[in-house]
Amino acid sequence: GLIVPIGEWVLREACRMNRSWQNAGYRPIPVAVNISAIQLERADLVEKVIGILEDTSLTPHYLELEITESALMSDVDQSISTLERLRRVGVRSAIDDFGTGYSSLAHLKRFAVDTLKIDRSFICNITRDRGNISIVQAIISLAHTLGLTVVAEGVETPEEYRLLSARGCDQIQGFYSGRPMPS
Q1: Cβ atoms within 10 A of the Cβ of 170, count?
Q2: How far is 164 from 151, CA to CA, in rounded Å?
Q3: With contact defined as beta carbons under 8 Å apart, do 89 and 46 qualify?
Q4: For residues 67 and 94, is the Cβ–Cβ distance under 8 A?
Q5: Are 78 and 41 in contact (CB under 8 A)?
Q6: Distance from first CA to last CA of the chain, Å, rounded?
Q7: Cα 121 to Cα 139: distance, rounded to the nearest angstrom
Q8: Closest C-alpha to 118, from 73, 157, 168, 75
């Protein structure tokens, strides 16, 4: 039962840290925060996000909320409404671990999301598995057709990066681009 208060604390700390980096003179960048299915289901999520943005003085477009496919699909109508309200506030959103859930393509076009994050399970053998290459290429094409940014998760080698770059992947995440580090 602690996911809601912990999730709120994580969101607040990420926004506070981002604002402190900006105050220290670093170039403003968006920070991404995972939101649990339970948080997404709460009627007050948008108000909590707005309150945290106001409390930390973080401009909304420097926050991106990452939500898994399965969380979005648990209550599609509520998810659509919440994402639309977040977008109106200026908060970006991403579908995390894309390709591993059970989302419907009919629903995908209705979600007010900005980014699809391709699950690392499709990336880890991409240089050797033609099936993974085909799936990743299809996701990139689909996302770009819908006007979405594509992020490949779990990129660890230069070969994976080159293959994804050649296929039009917009961004990567993983040890190839940088290891986790303290603030």
Answers
A1: 16
A2: 10
A3: yes
A4: yes
A5: yes
A6: 28
A7: 13
A8: 168
Tokens encoding 161: 């990066």
> 5: Cβ–Cβ under 8 A, 6 or more apart, which residues?
none
Q: Give pLDDT tens digits along the chain (183 positions).
A: 899 999 999 999 999 999 999 999 999 999 999 999 999 999 999 999 999 999 999 999 999 999 998 898 888 899 999 999 999 999 999 999 888 866 667 778 889 999 999 999 999 989 999 999 999 999 999 999 999 999 999 999 999 999 999 999 999 999 999 998 888
Cα–Cα nearest to 128, from 174, 171, 159, 168:
159
Tell me the C-alpha distance between 114 and 59, whole Å: 17
The dihedrals phi and psi of 60, each to the nearest 5 degrees, come to: -55, -35
